[in-house]
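anyone else get weird line breaks when pasting these?? whatever heres mine. first is seq + tokens for prot A
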Amino acid sequence: MIDHRQLLDRDVFSFTMAGTGYSTGQWLGEVVYAALYRAGDWLAISVLRAALVAVATFFISRVVLRYQSNPLWAIAPLIAAVLVSKIIWGDRPQLFSLALFPIFLFVALSARLDGHARRAFVLVPLALLWANLHGAFIVGIAVLGVVSVESWLSGASDRRILTLVFVVSAAATLVNPSGIGAYAAAAGYASSASVVVEERPLDVTTGAGTVFAALLLIALGLAMLVGRDIVADRLRAPLLWAGLAVPFAALGMLHQRQLPFASMVIAPIVAALAPAVFARRVSPVPNVPRVTASLVVVGSVVAAAAFILIAGSRSPDLAAYPMAAVPLLRDRTGNLFNEYDWGGYLIFALPEHPTYVDGRGAALYPPSLIAEFQNAVALRPGYREALDRRGVRFVLVRPDRALAVALRDANWLLLGEEPGRWVLLQRP
């Protein structure tokens, strides 16, 4: 997009869907990453990741501390939310959503509860920006929608302003290359898909799943133990929090990629209600002198910058990818059947070989092609016909795949392998 001065609206990276129209819903996020990479290589990407995670942590801290100013009670649910968010710390535009969601949550809560509803208009340009950075912008609009509905149900004096913020912010998100179609793409972002782990329903056996499940169960348990009156007193707007917690918890359980947003909603509830179980009052906000706080912040930023310059990573860890297979394919021509997880790496490292499938998932590939890939690697009926129909000449997969074993038995030529990691085969 930078080189050609136009948005990418057709596939140019695969041979199975070449020329097919599609929208990623994150064109601006991709441009930002590409521009930073060209300006500062992998170090710039690492700095961007750190900055976006820091922004997310800062604003979710503000939300949690709003309801529990005693750090001893606030720290555990806050850490839990941050730990869950690690599942989307990969270097992708979804990090912009990680940073923007807690900003929307913090500003929306402040506007609703502090009598400064007009300040929420700052979210309008952020909504426009978010809709072009990443497809998960819909979760921010959902927060504004819940706040708007609750303000009418509660008879809040600022309900018209809050509703106007919601409507104008939603309208601003339509200023993107896909228009209203971005909402359809965003809805697809929240649907489950079996081929991608992070798009599957909640798995409580994983680290993030366990932490989120514990956070959710604790929140439910606390709400039942302390009773309705204390919930209303500590949360100030219990109907608002119910409107946020129920749909976001359900979304997190349906789709693992949404767990960070769900955790950010649940963490303040736990922080607010936990002391009540032990009959503890809400502690006053610690009074830290502004000069002292400023010195601590500036010192921390300087220390972090120094650490990045001295010890920051200048290259990514690509050990999980078939790096040694790239030179074996570079001078060969023909269609390549590849592992789904390796598609993005191959687009980057081997652009002269269009992929069979890659991490763009449902944004580009129809369910039939994803099923075709799964059937082929599992050696289900019709796999050979699929390889023939696609004109596949090379197969690059994990060596334990049933497909790899079968093709070796069928006398496909072994071009190279790394035991336990990858095997590259050529049609005889």
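and prot B, same format (seq, then tokens)
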Amino acid sequence: MRILLVEDDETIAGYITKGLEEAGFSVERASTGKEGLYFALNEQYDAAVFDLMLPEVDGLSIIAEMRGKGITTPVLILSARQSVDDKIAGLQTGADDYLTKPFSFAELQVRIQALIRRSSATPASSLLQVGALTLDRFTRDVQHAGQPIVLQAREYSLLMYLMSNAGRVVTKTMILDHIWEYNFDPQTNVVEVLIHRLRAKVDKPFGTNLIRTIRGVGYVLSAQES
């Protein structure tokens, strides 16, 4: 799941990014309101976290612009402003939640997950299934025919991406962009390594071939193993 983080404090931004990535999220960071507004209007995210006091464009203005253009991305305000009036202003502008600094990362993560869950059309939308393989995007539970599969953060992110695009070929570049979100050397083998690790957990123990290589194109996850 992709999160937009707009925070000008590098220490806080780094702390949040590290924690969310370890939890399996993909994070796009912006350090100015202008940059954050551009991302918010031109990219798709599962949720966004905004500071209020930002250079160039403040957080409330970003939210107002988003809502004015019909963008419904769930927004959590993370701010040092603690007054009731500030919270009311944020929520009335279009934010979905408000968390004050200093904060607990565990609470931040739970609130983000709650926002994503509430924004889903139906509770069932949290469950992805391909054949006997299931993944719950909110509990992060992965199973094959009821047998639990334990994945590391990037393995989980890759599997969720492949399952979200089940039956469609995703290229190496698409995977790099979605999982790492910055440009690697085109010759890097990090995707191949991650695919190999994922197959060792998702396919090999069960004698399946759900994750297939389309030579010269990319990868596809499908219940059709031929």
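btw re prot B: DSSP finds eight helices and eleven strands in the chain. Residues 124-221 form a domain with the Arc Repressor Mutant, subunit A fold (CATH 1.10.10.10).
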